[in-house]
Amino acid sequence: MMADLDGQLTPLLEKIKDLRSFAQQQGLDLSDEIQALENKAADLRAKMYANLSPWQKVKLARHIKRPSTLDYFELIFSDFIQLYGDRQYRDDPALVGGIALLQGKPVTVLGHQKGRDTKDNIARNFGMPHPEGYRKALRLMKQAEKFHRPVICFIDTPGAYPGQGAEERGQSEAIARNLRDMAVLKIPILNLITGEGGSGGALALGVGDSLLMLENSIYSVISPEGCASILWKDAAQAKDAAAALKLTAHDLEKLGVIDEIIPEPQGGVHKNWEAGAVAIKEALLRHLDVLEDLSMETLLQRRWRRLSELGNE
Amino acid sequence: MALFRKPKYSTVAARQEVPKDLASKCTKCNTIHIKQELEKNLWVCPKCGHHLPLTAGQRLRFTLDEGSFQELDADLSSGNPLDFPQYQEKLSKAQRASGLNEAVITGRGLIHGQPAYLGILAREFMLGSMGAVVGEKLARMLDKACQERTPALIFSVSGGARMQESILSLFQMAKTSAALARLHQQGVLYISILTDPTTGGVSASFAMLGDINIAEPGALIGFAGPRVIQQTIGQSLPTGFQRAEFLLEHGMLDMVVPRQDMKATLARLLKFHGGEA
Fold first, then answer.
1. Which one of A242, A262, B8, B173 has the fewest CB atoms closer than 10 angstroms to its CB?
2. How confident is the model at residue A45 (pLDDT cuts 50, 70, 90)?
3. Element containing residue B28 per DSSP (H, E)
């Protein structure tokens, strides 16, 4: 899809290339003409990326080359120490967490972990946690509360895993408990959607004090494919469902349910991980600054108000 | 060879022509029952014990003392906040068919004389799906229960969050769970009663957060529906998977209580938690 997008520019880019080699062969100075064409290409590219359709955003949000949660941990924090396990059943590799320094300040970091390639994705269950993943997250959040460390959640999952073991071990209960306990956790919680915010499996890391979204991330109650197959009995209509679900960061900003959109490098954060990480770090520090100035009582009241106003018009 | 044969009479199964408004068929064992009889038996099949679906109104009648119900927020109804295709039509249709404004009834009433706040999801309204109004009504009811330190009960029956409200319905899971966090902190009893079916966003929020979780026999309870799971794992699921008894065995419920015993059980539990007798 992104190849298609860039494909629209191909003729223009070819022309620039031809012109350049022609100039070189003939020893001519065509730099003004070339510059004009390059400006035109840049304009077109900017226009294209500024007007992506919801379905194009879905594709971008799921792009395999996007940084994963562990990549962000390495890029944004220093001295990340991974902590494992829910102390009850097993460690879930689809949800990772630990402690790290954000500009020298200790924080607890958590996030869904997708694989970096197919093999890794299978090991990570494509970023779809089992109950033990959510229980690990809650364990680390309570640990954060004990040591007065803010929690930062990186959200990127198609959803909680719909499997036999997940049901047997209480997927519903694990998610529900996170929702309840995060509502009253006595530390600031920042929530950042980096890619796919898939339903309850995303929300289980999504309750907190600041909800941020990367420019090309999505967040909805059901995947466009799932919605299309229920509504129109045809998963192929996912494109229309993506529009109907209002799942892009800009849609959610318009609905007034998120605090900030973090801009991505042109074409998507997969084209420049470092620039993406810098923008995220800046936003995290800024939001944390505000939240840490609040008394615990104010912070919790503010969170309560945010939660109770959700969805009210 | 016998000269005389006994004539053979074939017994033609008499077609049970019972008028629809008088009789109803058990969806499990296909036995036809007189409706009055079923009503007396709280719509539990007298033959096989199958718990037939109830409307929210019936549930209310079977749970509360007569004349004790005071409804809250009856007039709240949904708009179409995302301009979702055909949602308005679906809402109007559900309203006409159910006689309800939304998929939940909330209020206060007495159970064998003991006060309780309660919410009853309505299967007959878009399969009890939770949108912003359902979440808001439940949260307001729970807040009242918290302020008045009165136990709260929710009867769940739901396919989950309401797709047509997308993110707004998803957030109702957080809103209702946050309301329950307050009850939890304030030491106010919350009993969740899970009935057939309780799945998706409703099971993954308030339905699983009871101090006491009770289910009706045979109720389907789960995060993902069995069809989705089967598609995902590509193999058949064990018998009884995601049924109430299965969840009891796996530690997710405190008890499975037949409908005929539900009111008495709730009354006993309320008594334990400071309810006046």
1. B8
2. confident
3. none
The rounded mean pLDDT for chain B is: 93
Does residue B210 register a pLDDT over 50?
yes
B67 has a pLDDT exceeding 90: yes
Q: What's the gap in Å between the CA of A7 and the closest CA on chain B? A: 32
Q: What pLDDT was estimated at residue B16?
A: 56
Residue matched to tokens 């998706």? B200
Q: Which residues of A touch B185 (CB under 8 A)?
A: 184
The one-letter code for the residue type at A114 is K
Q: What is the ipTM of this complex?
A: 0.92
Q: Is residue B30 within 8 Å of B48, Cβ to Cβ?
A: no
CB atoms within 10 A of CB A211: 24
* Separation of alpha carbons B149 and A58, rounded Å: 46
Chain B CB within 8 Å of residue A183 CB = yes
**Span B99-107, average pLDDT:** 97
Point out the residue among B181, B208, B251 whose CB comes nearest to the CB of A183: B181
List, for residues A74-127, the tens digit of each pLDDT value.
999 999 999 999 999 999 999 999 999 999 999 999 999 999 899 999 999 999
Cα distance between residue A80 and residue A98, in whole Å: 7
The number of CA neighbours under 13 Å toward the Cβ of A182 is: 36
Residue in B173, B176, B190, B241 to test binding to A, most A beta-carbons within 10 Å: B173
- Domains in chain B (CATH in brackets) are 21-52 (no CATH), 53-272 (3.90.226.10)
Q: Cα(B260)–Cα(B270) distance, rounded to whole angstroms? A: 17
Over the range B36-46, which residues count as b (16 or more CB within 10 Å of their CB) and which as e?
A: eebeeebbbbe
The C-alpha atoms of residue A246 and residue B80 are separated, in whole angstroms, by 12
Using CA atoms, how far residue B254 sits from A38, A301, B208, B210, B248, in Å, is 69, 33, 11, 9, 7
Evaluated on CA atoms B25, B30, B34, B40, the torsion sign reads: negative
A227 at interface of B, judged by CB pairs closer than 8 A: yes
Residue B166 to chain A, least CA–CA distance (Å): 5
Q: What DSSP letter does each residue of B171-202 carry, written as one string?
A: HHHHHHHHHHHHHHHHT--EEEEEEEEEEHHH
Residues of A in contact with B169 (CB under 8 A): 221, 311
CA nearest to A309 within chain B? B175
pLDDT the model gives residue A310:
80
Cis peptide before B197 (omega within 30 of 0): yes
Name which of A58, A126, A138, A172 to mutate to probe chain B: the one with the most chain B Cβ atoms within 10 A of its Cβ.
A172
Which residues lie below 8 Å from residue B99, measured CB to CB, with a gap of 6+? none
**Cβ(B18)–Cβ(B33) below 8 Å:** no
Please tell me the predicted confidence (pLDDT) of residue A5: 64
How many CA atoms does the CB half-sphere of B184 hold within 13 Å? 18
Cβ separation B167–A257 shorter than 8 A: yes
One-letter amino acid of B173: M
Rounded distance between C-alpha atoms, residue B165 and residue B162, angstroms: 6
